[in-house]
Amino acid sequence: MTAIGTVPAPVTGDDPLGLADLGRQVRETRRSLNMSQLALGRELGYSQSSVARIEAGEKPLTPEGRRAVLAGIAALGSDGHVPWFGPWLHAERTATALRSWEGPLIPGLAQTRAYARHVLRTASPGISAAELDAHVAARMARQDIWQRTSPGPPVFAAIISEWALRQAVGTPEIMREQLHRLLALASRHGVSIHVLPLTAGDSAGVLAPFVVASFAPGPRPDAAYLDDAVEGRTIGKRDVVEKLKLIYDGLAGDAHSRCESRELIGRAIGEWT
Question: Quick one: pLDDT band at residue 126, thresholds 50, 70, 90?
């Protein structure tokens, strides 16, 4: 996923969050930023008591007010990313399981610094060197998820197109380093990397990248991230998330097994000599 853009997009245009879910998201974001309710209220234009009521799911908000609150915490929680990536960044950090379809790219959570730099530079023509450095650093920081202790690292299942192993991103040296990194990640406990063969047909080629996040048992519903060439969006609509799960299962059925995929990645490394 590119997770880069030039104009922040509304992150909640189709977000069905109720007051309780909104309160949970505000509370979790505030705590992750180590902010008091008073400090967050100053950033959002609310009093401490209003923030407390929002977090408790007791403060009625107009749709515009709800969008403003979500956009505000998205900007605060974006952590070096563009603001619209903030909601997904929080979901990714707290998920217990991630299911990812990346198509012809290596997943961001598995990218090397050099590979990520080429991907992000291509995704934003004209970006300055300083901005590019910041975006690369932010992407690398996301990989701290593999050292997470509470909760532990998420169960991670990713499907990538075989094309991701063949398409040059940078130099052959960059590709070899990247595929070694992918192979190492595929060997981790709780990680499944599956390669979708080029012979699987052309239907997968029209699917934009997406990730589905699941959380610890409780009232928190699954969420999804949809990406395109310019920007991405975090979605909480249950019907959309369930449809993406079905799409993922269909791709998984056509993909190579974990063992076969690791062998294919290993052969691809040799081909980039």
Answer: confident
Mean pLDDT of 60-89: 71
HSE at residue 111, side-chain half, CA atoms within 13 A, is: 27
pLDDT digits (tens, 9 = 90+) for 47-60: 999 989 998 888 88
Token pair of 149 as six digits? 């202790």
Strand pairing of 97-103 and 155-161? parallel
pTM of the model: 0.72
Q: Which residues of 14-29 are buried (b: 16+ CB within 10 A; e: fewer)?
A: ebebebebbbbbbbbb
The maximal CA–CA distance of the chain, rounded, in angstroms, is 62
User: Which sign, positive or negative, has the C-alpha torsion 38, 40, 45, 46?
Assistant: negative
CA angle 268, 271, 273 (to 5 degrees): 125
